[in-house]
Design a protein that fits this description.
mainly alpha, Growth Hormone, Chain: A, 2 domains
């Protein structure tokens, strides 16, 4: 009885999660701010296409050096401090981009926002661990992850609509102003509603080795990597997240040799993301009820192996829509499960650092796998050839990931 009284469960946890989700969505809006209007920004600012693309590329590039330091700060100072820091950086540097005719200032603004992003995204599992019990861990992580995808889905159609049919530097400045005000409002709302911790902690399932008193410093990296399951999770997120980024970035070029146009390819990508949004709610909910992570991670790797092969081999557009949706549903859902498994492996005290490592590997995997796919396509298909063998490469690495997933150690119910 005394042990039960040491724990608490508060409805306010959903308010905290909603405040986090708002900031999470805003970070993705900022990342893709210029993506759907690249050509128009290029014309208005009189810069090359590469310079416009560079504004978005700064995010995965800066994630790599900033991720682990951000994770250590999250574990030392708590999720509220870290997310608020990220939100302030996002809002503050966003206003710098109002100098729309000055590319260097716009780039500096995007760099500042990109530095703030890891403080937000790496706080997902820390937020969940502080406020949610173990039986809601995957669902809460899935909802937090869902906010990132919702931000992506929102910004792609909204930005062109805000810019208008006859864009000028003033209309581009208006787009930036709207997003900057939203970012500022988000930071204020998070500061008001996101409490650092509940009066009593939720009931978590953690072993003594990964207790609240674990050391939080650079030496803790060795402790984290000494954990058997965590090493396997690193491999899985490197392949899974990396491959998914590669597919989304190259989807138009992958489908073009099949006779599928740009608009249709974009719709296929949207279906994958929408299906993934649903998967992030459904699969983690089932996982929490069963208190199992491993079977669903295995299922995601298995489905991805088959689905990617079918996308590579098929030419029928309706079938690719269906297969893409199925792949997105399971593969997206595996992301919050891996993060939840990582938190349950390392414990609440080190979960910020652990998530930082996983997110770093996921972003690095996206860069590396995309480059490998491009290299394979260039070596086997020429400048206008097929991505078939590049997709087969993804099939092979997913098959390897599937094998590693079977070696995860999980006690049913824990």
């Amino acid at each position: 009885m005394e042990q039960e009284e040491a724990y608490g469960l508060y409805r306010y946890r959903w308010v905290v999660l909603a405040a986090f989700m708002l900031i999470g969505a805003i970070t993705q809006i900022m990342w893709l701010n210029y993506a759907p209007i690249t050509s128009k920004v290029q014309t208005l600012m009189h810069v090359s296409e590469f310079k416009v693309v560079l504004l978005a590329i700064m995010f995965p590039l800066l994630y790599i050096p900033v991720s682990i330091p951000a994770g250590i700060i999250i574990d030392r100072k708590g999720f509220r401090f870290a997310v608020l820091l990220g939100a302030i950086l996002t809002a503050g540097f966003s206003f710098l981009r109002l100098f729309t005719g000055n590319y260097p200032l716009v780039l500096i603004g995007m760099i500042g926002i990109a530095i703030g992003q890891p403080f937000v995204l790496n706080s997902i599992t820390k937020t969940v661990a502080v406020w949610f019990p173990a039986e809601e861990s995957a669902l809460a992580t899935g909802l937090a992850t869902l906010s990132l995808f919702l931000g992506m889905l929102l910004v792609l159609p909204l930005t062109p609509a805000l810019l208008g049919k006859d864009p000028t530097l003033s209309s581009l400045r208006f787009v930036v102003l709207v997003y900057s005000i939203v970012a500022l409002a988000g930071a204020i709302l998070f500061a008001i509603f996101a409490r650092a911790r509940p009066p009593k902690p939720p009931k978590r399932l953690e072993v003594d080795l990964q207790s609240e008193e674990a050391a939080i410093n650079w030496a803790s990296l060795g402790k984290i990597f000494s954990l058997y399951n965590f090493r396997l999770l690193c491999i899985l997120i490197l392949v899974g997240n990396g491959a998914f980024i590669g597919i989304l970035q190259l989807l138009e070029k992958i489908l073009k040799p099949k006779g599928i146009g740009t608009n249709t390819a974009g719709n296929i990508g949207a279906v994958m993301v929408l299906a993934g949004v649903i998967g992030c709610i459904v699969i983690p909910s089932i996982s929490d009820k069963m208190m199992r992570r491993k079977p669903f991670i295995i299922l995601a790797a298995g489905v991805a192996t088959v689905a990617i092969f079918m996308i590579a081999a098929l030419k029928g557009t309706p079938l690719i829509f269906v297969i893409g949706g199925i792949n997105g549903f399971f593969l997206f859902a595996a992301f919050p499960l891996v993060l939840a498994f990582g938190e349950e492996t390392t414990g609440k005290a080190l979960t910020g650092t652990a998530t930082a490592i996983l997110m770093l590997l996921g972003n690095a995997g996206g860069v590396v796998i995309t480059l490998i796919m491009e290299a394979i396509k260039g070596a086997t298909g020429g400048t206008s050839g097929s991505f078939f063998w590049a997709m087969i490469f993804l099939v092979v690495i997913f098959a390897v990931a599937l094998v590693f997933a079977f070696f995860l150690r999980e006690e049913p119910g824990k």
